[in-house]
Amino acid sequence: MNSPHVPAPVRPLYRRQRFRSAALAATIAALLLGAAGEAPAAPASPAPAGAPAVADCPAALAGKARCYTGQDGNGAHYALAVPARWNGSLVVHAHGGPDLGDASDPARSTEDLERWAVMVEEGYAWAGSSYRRGGYGTRMAAADTESVRRVFLDRFGKPERTFVHGQSWGGNVAAKVAETYGTEPGAYDGVLLTNGVLGGGSRGYDYRVDLRVVYQYYCGNHPRPTEPRYPLWQGLRPGSTMTSAGLSARLRECTGFDAVPAERTALQQRNLDDILAVTGIPERSLESHLRFATFTFRDIVSTRLGGRNPFSNRGVRYAGSHDDRALNAGVERFSADPAARRDLSWDSDLTGRVSLPVLTLHAIEDPTAFVEHESAYRATLRGAGREHRLVQTFTRESEHSGLSSAEYANSIAALDRWARTGRKPTARSLAASCAAFDRGRGTGCFYDPDFRPSPYASRVLPRPGGLSWPAMTATQERVWGRVDGVGIAP
Fold first, then answer.
1. Any idea what DSSP says for residue 88?
2. Pairing of strands 77-83, 125-129
């Protein structure tokens, strides 16, 4: 058990010997990495713009922690919290989304702190960035996540251990943090990925590509015949003023998705049945997936990739409808621009070259980031020879945005023990240890230690050449990283 820590008013001074040891370790590690031909570490994030300011804590943490907010040198707003009885370790959080918008949202990091108060209640300090802007950009979000870690170090000194946590798209971001910054000696000690989008950008949204074209085949109202035409891989044409409410109205018009079955017309019911059967998307999350395939696709294509297409459905055979032959003959087809696909891959795909303990937690019935993302991630680490660094756990839950607080507390504690002792947990040991945390929380433990997800291709129709993992190898990452302007601009 670590002794409680109290937030220091200024950055603490360290003994000279500790600096010498850290410098020696960093030098040796750099030499070893160079000899092994690894990619060089990413450039350090800019220094913070200003010192964190004391702020009110969320209601759940009132009287339990000291909280701070600020804005880093890239313009990303952030929030920090240090519990009154700090165990000396830090959780750096990567949020999901991505949210859309041009600027950093100062409310996002404070809302995330309230949502992840369980980490602080368990004794961990917490740091989360709102990212410097909205919109897609996994490496940008990873850099801003690393930046908030540095902000914390600058204010409170180096924690005993540091863990990076990400949920949803934040799981992709946190996994990218581990690969990009996790090789820096002492930066991070472990990775927690919960309900993560771990298939990466170049394959992780293929089912939404399929939804976009299958929806239009059956509904024909996005766009309508009277509206300007555009290729569906754009998601939505640039300059369109359609809103989320407007998109929902079109989905309702075609499928009656939010009505009871008795109130749907026969055509609405058949359209809905066909769309769900072909795409495999749960009815309750159909609207949110279509929003992503509309507005976030527009952000990726039009704003981040200069109008170039990173998506493909060429060679995909759709099945499960009342007339598959007609569907496959009539659905819109397109192929990706190779450079656009490369840029999306370099930005968001994972190489599996992680040197830290990685623990994942995923709801089996997650309606947004399907549990088969975990199969893609295991295959990615296996392809990189790093599968031994991974422990995956699964729960009999059906939500995406939040799991049981007892399970989060159990997961971070197990990762902490693994980092401290080197003893790797198992799915069964995690299922057993959760009850102790649930006694104080009462949110339940729903582990299924015998569950194994099916391959990613069993849920998401693979594109030609899309069965091998990782989607981006470490060699490709190094080669592409030398291309001027590669990826998605911050």
1. S
2. antiparallel
The CA distance from 178 to 164, in Å, is 8
CB-CB contact of 440 with 122 (8 Å): no
Task: Supply 34's token pair.
Answer: 């160079």
Q: For the segment 108-122, what is each residue's pLDDT rounded down to a tens digit?
A: 999 999 999 999 999
pTM here?
A: 0.89
Q: Pull the structure tokens for residue 124.
A: 């961990």
How far apart (Å, rounded) are the C-alpha atoms in residues 195 and 168? 5
Distance of CA 238 to the CA centre of its chain: 26
For 152-201, what is each residue's pLDDT tens digit? Answer: 999 999 999 999 999 999 999 999 999 999 999 999 999 999 999 999 99
Query: What's the CA gap between 7 and 57, in Å, rounded?
Result: 15
Contacts of 344 (CB under 8 A, 6+ apart): 201, 202, 300, 305, 310, 488
Rg of the chain, C-alpha, whole Å:
23
Query: Angle CA(317)–CA(323)–CA(328) in degrees, nearest 5?
Result: 30
- State how far the Cα of 246 lies from the Cα of 343, in Å rounded to an integer: 31
